[in-house]
Amino acid sequence: MRAADGTAILTTGEDRALRVHDLVYEDSGGIALAPPRTFPQPDSVNATQWYPSASRLTPETFCFVASIRDAPVHLIDASDGRIRASYPIVDHRERFVAPHSFAFNTAANKLYCGFENAIEVFDFASPGYDSGERLKLGLTRKEKGGQRGIISALAFSAHHPTFAAGSFAGSVVLYDEDTQTAISHVEGVEGGGVTQIAFHPLDPNVVFVASRRSEAIQAYDLRDTCAPVGRLARSGSTNQRLAFDVDPWGRWLASGDEFGTVRVWDIGSTYSVLFEQKLHEDAVNSVQFHAYQPLLLTCAGSRSQLQASDVEFSSDEDIDSSDDDEGRSGYDEAEHSGVRIKTGAKDSRLTIWSFEQP
């Protein structure tokens, strides 16, 4: 996830760490990623979100929010990892709730946090306990309607006071920001749970929806949400989030798939494929356009199932003699009781690609 001006990139990993990579302009005119600043966390990371105007050039805005399991929502300084503020969400058992999605409203003064059957709304300038307002979406068993499930995706429209909420139950509902009431339900959502929602930056009537275990990103016209008006095909049968990105000028949408192929679609008129190429050997879990440069960022990696070829049995002598070996098949290795297990992603990389002609 890149900062608004593209000066830094925020990543999360299976090692429960947050990393901030700075983009460095080289003397030759190229762009490279500086060694990351790593901020270890006490537990797994559910979600992150940059402050809307975050920039490395303005230290006061250079921060992001992070959801850590069994902890309050933290506002973290991207320069040194210190916690600037906390926004606790507490359930009826007085336990911390870690949201699965974040979104700032268009004025950047409210932070929306999605979790099971509800959204917690914080005044961003007033952190602390009892400062949030809870919008309950799931009604009781006796009442009909509502939006049930974990709120896994949130997005705000830049054109009118409307936001969309998607859940792992597969529902997408549009809400009025002022009254916080449901406006309409989006029908025909594919897959086994919504993972991302994005409004078109120029067309106020178009919204894009991505789901896990789905073979397409769906485009909807908000004037009639009974069925999608466009379908951007990609391979996505996995439960992993495969994030897409819309360029700031509303011309293209880019996404990767579970096999390492990256596609760019024309979303200005027809949803046709402009670019398609296999760039990684593993699932492309995120793509990002640079805000001002003809660059595309891709991030690859996934959990890999253990195969028979990944397990080797050896004697004690073999283990002792192999302590100094390095670079076995590009995997990390764990050894226990004479069993060597190869672990690690097939292609775990963060890569910047240029659209400029050589």
TrEMBL record:
Source organism superkingdom: Eukaryota
Residue ranges, compositional bias (Acidic residues): 313-326
Pfam families cross-referenced by the UniProt entry: WD40
SMART domains with a match to the protein in the record: WD40
InterPro entries (UniProt xref): SWT21/TCAB1_mRNA_Telomere (IPR051150), WD40/YVTN_repeat-like_dom_sf (IPR015943), WD40_repeat_dom_sf (IPR036322), WD40_rpt (IPR001680)
Start-end of Basic and acidic residues biased regions: 327-338
Region ranges (Disordered): 310-338
Official protein name in the record: WD40 repeat-like protein
